[in-house]
Design brief:
This protein has helices spanning 11-14, 29-37, 59-74, 94-108, 150-169, 215-236; strands at residues 111-120, 126-135, 138-147, 173-184, 187-198, 201-210. The protein has 2 domains: 9-49, no CATH class; 111-236, Double Stranded RNA Binding Domain. Helix content is 36%, strand content 27%.
């Protein structure tokens, strides 16, 4: 007499027999199921690799939904204590996480750059520089008419930006002390010096921005870089 083994033979389950069994099993799902069903007392086993229940509902609510659906559609009354819920973590692709982080960071900034345009003026050899900024969904636009030259365009973009910011902080003024296009380390960078004035207080601020889509747009970004914290503090007060 030989002793009985707690395992049943799993050879039959491991042999491909056509259909689904003959399909590739790179993750070893069927082998795991065959192993589990070879255990004594196990009649059936299924390994599920896809999420069963998301985290949108509480487990108790999911159980009640399952119990009600089985009774309503199939006439099956199942004891809710026999229903188990397997929840999975809400895992998002890294691209979605990065986009979410960028969006959250943008929303934390009060003043956002919207647009910068150069249009012709009625005056000969002059252009109009228009800068649009938004604050909590409301857009403000400032305009400066300047001589049609590279240096004047940069100064006009800086002054137009400062003018819009003045509307947003009201009782304070912004004065553009200087704008310069600098060539350094094989890059073109706009450097600005802006002075914030309020009452008897005056603060000098500097900002920079690399030229990627035009020097005028970079000038707007440089002014925002210089004044971001200053504007936030004045708005909060």
């Amino acid at each position: 007499m030989t002793g009985s083994s707690p395992f049943k033979s799993a050879d039959a389950g491991n042999r491909p027999s056509g259909g689904a069994e003959s399909m590739p099993d790179p993750w070893g799902v069927r082998r795991a199921e065959n192993l589990l069903t070879s255990l004594e007392g196990v009649l059936s086993a299924r390994v599920v690799t896809t999420p069963l229940a998301g985290s949108g509902l509480a487990p108790k609510q999911i159980v009640r939904n399952i119990e009600s659906a089985l009774l309503a559609h199939l006439g099956l009354k199942v004891d809710h204590r026999k229903i188990s819920i397997a929840q999975t973590a809400d895992v998002k692709p890294i691209e979605a996480l990065e986009r979410g982080a960028v969006r959250d960071q943008a929303l934390r900034r009060a003043v956002l750059f919207e647009d910068c345009r150069i249009t012709s003026s009625e005056r000969s050899q002059h252009v109009v520089v228009s800068v649009s900024l938004s604050l909590q969904g409301a857009t403000e636009t400032g305009r400066e008419e300047v001589l049609d030259s590279p240096r004047s365009r940069l100064e006009g973009a800086a002054r137009a930006t400062a003018g819009v910011l003045e509307k947003m902080v009201e009782r304070y003024s912004l004065v553009v002390d200087g704008v310069k296009l600098v060539e350094a380390l094989d890059r073109s960078v706009v450097f600005v010096v802006v002075r914030g004035v309020g009452g008897r207080q005056s603060r000098v601020m500097t900002g920079t921005a690399e030229v990627t889509e035009g020097a005028e747009r970079a000038t707007v970004c440089a002014v925002l870089d210089a004044t971001n914290r200053w504007v936030e503090a004045r708005r909060a007060s």
